[in-house]
Structure formats: structure tokens, C-alpha cells
Design goal:
- The chain is about 85% helix and about 0% strand.
- It contains five helices and no strands.
- Helix 2 packs across helix 3.
- The chain is globular.
Length: about 120
């Protein structure tokens, strides 16, 4: 069970770092970061309205930290994003039902398998 969480955290940090250093900083807003996070999770586990509401608040906080991290040095940025990711994942885990958690893990493993197949086919 820890392996999917570690993988999910690594993916989230990786995506965050890419968002952090990509694109025009003037076009990024908390909504432009948080909304796709919620949509992505909703597509995997079919969130309820209440779950979306709770996760939206947490995703917005995550996005604020992401935007703040853009102004920090590498080490401070990494630490801020690591903490933000841990907090967001804690909220996700507290909000999802047991069935939704299983579905999320299943979808994550499917995506990782696809990535591995794609990487192996390029060798």
C-alpha cells in the first residue's frame, strides 16, 4: 500500500515542479492549477459534490504553495512542495471511501503500466 502512495507523491511532485518552472507565470492562477487536479481525480473515482468541495479547498491551498514555491530557491521550493503534497494527499485519503481509494490505486497502477510499456517500447 505504501508503494502506490510513494509513486503518487513522486508523480505529484514531478508535475508540480514542471508547472513550477513551465509557462508564463502571469497566466497561472490557483484555479488553473487546482481545477485540473480535482477533475483528474473525479475522472478516476467519481467524486461526490461534498468531496469535490473539500478537495477544492485543499487543492487551492496546494496551488498557492506551488505559486509561492516559484519565488524560492530550489531547496526551499522542494521542501514547500513536499509539505504541500503530503497535506493534499492526507486530505484526499481522508475524503475518499475505501472503494474510491481502491479505484484510485487501480487507475494509478494502470497509468504506471502504460508509462512503463511506453518507456520500454522506446528502447
Amino acid at each position: 500500500m505504501k508503494k502506490p502512495k510513494l509513486i503518487m507523491a513522486a508523480i505529484a511532485i514531478s508535475v508540480s515542479i514542471n508547472l513550477l518552472f513551465a509557462g508564463n507565470p502571469n497566466t497561472l492562477s490557483t484555479d488553473s492549477i487546482a481545477n485540473p487536479m480535482i477533475d483528474y481525480l473525479h475522472n478516476d473515482v467519481n467524486l461526490t459534490g461534498k468531496q469535490k468541495e473539500i478537495l477544492k479547498k485543499s487543492a487551492n491551498e496546494y496551488a498557492k504553495n506551488l505559486l509561492k514555491a516559484r519565488t524560492l530557491n530550489n531547496n526551499e521550493s522542494y521542501l514547500l512542495m513536499k509539505t504541500a503534497d503530503e497535506k493534499y494527499q492526507t486530505v484526499v485519503d481522508s475524503v475518499l471511501t475505501a472503494d474510491q481509494k481502491k479505484q484510485k490505486d487501480l487507475k494509478l497502477n494502470e497509468k504506471l503500466d502504460e508509462m512503463n510499456k511506453s518507456a520500454n517500447s522506446k528502447k
